[in-house]
Inverse folding.
């Protein structure tokens, strides 16, 4: 059942499942995606006794389209607000820019973030000349407009970002994405996000992250020039346990759930708990 959290510019949609006393896990989708992207992970988390909240991004899914500001930082702020609303601390799970938002949140409020699980994570800005950025943003304004914007994103999501192994339910998910983007307000929000998005604020906060972390990187993820090098950078930057997965692109949680799900559950099982069984935050020193 969809619930909503009020924020200064609108409401963030989320669903909540699992035992009320269970340790809290908050899952954050990536740009242009829906919270159903986490369908492979949510069930096993609930079965393992976790309280699982899955949120939609601003202007996506069932969230309001009234937001003027988008990106990693405000998404991280929304996630932290949800953790406070539900009672943390929580483990944050994020994909793509959702991973960047989770990482920023861990640096901003280490008292609320017990750990990080990151898939296809953007924790730093890709080097690109300023003129190239300006041209790219100009193209995005045109490409992600009516009447072709929804179809273009659906095609890009399915064929480019999901190259390699594909989830058996990918076509159904892409149809849902396309249907959502046909709403002019959703498409406008998505277009604003593509123009506003920068991972520079996350990169600046990376040295402050102390939460234990694991990450999953697709070996053929087209969003990284060298996925193996990105995985190695993550290992050093946040002391993460990183798994590079063959024949997987930008959505390891869906393209390789047989890898992501058990390793995530094992990671959660090792996190410290209080007497009531809820997550505890480790000291500022990395363990």
């Amino acid at each position: 059942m969809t619930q909503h959290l009020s924020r200064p510019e609108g409401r963030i949609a989320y669903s909540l499942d699992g035992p009320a006393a269970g340790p809290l896990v908050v899952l954050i989708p990536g740009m242009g995606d829906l919270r159903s992207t986490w369908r492979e992970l949510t069930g096993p988390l609930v079965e393992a006794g976790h309280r699982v909240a899955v949120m939609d991004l601003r202007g996506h899914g069932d969230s309001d389209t009234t937001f003027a500001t988008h990106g990693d930082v405000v998404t991280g702020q929304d996630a932290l607000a949800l953790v406070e609303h539900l009672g943390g601390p929580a483990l944050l799970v994020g994909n793509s820019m959702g991973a960047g938002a989770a990482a920023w949140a861990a640096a901003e409020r280490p008292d609320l973030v017990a750990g990080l699980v990151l898939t296809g994570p953007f924790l730093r800005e890709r080097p690109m000349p300023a003129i190239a950025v300006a041209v790219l943003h100009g193209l995005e304004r045109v490409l992600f407009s009516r009447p072709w914007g929804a179809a273009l994103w659906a095609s890009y999501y399915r064929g480019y970002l999901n190259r390699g192994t594909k989830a058996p339910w990918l076509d159904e998910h892409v149809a849902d994405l396309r249907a959502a983007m046909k709403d002019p307000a959703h498409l406008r929000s998505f277009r604003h996000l593509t123009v506003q998005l920068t991972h520079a604020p996350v990169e600046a906060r990376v040295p402050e992250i102390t939460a234990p972390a694991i990450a999953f990187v697709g070996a053929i993820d087209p969003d990284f020039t060298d996925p193996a090098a990105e995985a190695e950078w993550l290992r050093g930057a946040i002391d993460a346990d990183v798994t590079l997965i063959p024949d997987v692109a930008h959505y390891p949680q869906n393209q390789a759930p047989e890898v992501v799900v058990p390793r995530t559950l094992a990671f959660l099982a090792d996190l410290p708990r209080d007497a009531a069984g809820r997550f505890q935050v480790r000291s500022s020193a990395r363990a």
In short: Residues 128-142 have pLDDT under 50 and may be disordered.
